[in-house]
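Researcher: I'm preparing a figure for a lab meeting and need a structural model of a single chain. I don't have an experimental structure, so a prediction will have to do for now. The sequence is pasted below. Please return the structure as tokens so I can convert it later.
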Amino acid sequence: MQHRPVILFGAAIAAFAVLATSIVPMAPAYAQQQQQRQQGTQQRKPTQGQQQEVRELPPAGTTFVVADVLHILREAAAVQSIRQQIEKQRAAYQADLQKQENELRNADQELARQRALLAPEVFAERRKDLERRVADAQQLVQERRRSLDQAFNNAMQRVEQAMRDVIIEIVKERNYQVVLAKTQVVVVQSQLDITGEVMQRLNRKLPTVTVSIPAQK
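Model: Understood. Here is the structure written out token by token.
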């Protein structure tokens, strides 16, 4: 009599495969940034870190000036270096997880073939072992996803701090009173926009950021 395949493992491995393919960082800022970049790329092909025209700064003592913070945190040279490092690590993780998925599928199929030949207690032991391997693999996916999330957020915090330092530097130099995020303004004259200057100085101050990803077991 033929025995049915071990369906439990097939479903579990399929769930692992879904997790493995979604190991990209899930931080909302990263996801939003990627979506905004894709939309922008459809309209233009910008040069790295130099998308915003550098205009003459508003006169000293201007009460209100604006900066496109989202644009800076999406297109600055340091941010692009972070994105490249995250994507490289993500690809390495997915290649490793693909290998694990193939090994688990092969082990599942082999156990199904051997089911009729093994003593019940031996089969039960091997089944538990395979269940443990699948569970460990699923846990590894979650750990790596959290690791990439944290690494991305930590790196972006450095960029955000450097951007704030640059803005404060400009404010002190020019005696500006208030700097508003461009998203908070309905209409603004282009002469009041300091985005280009902020971007230029930020790229000089922090051209790259090394992404630190915790070692995985």
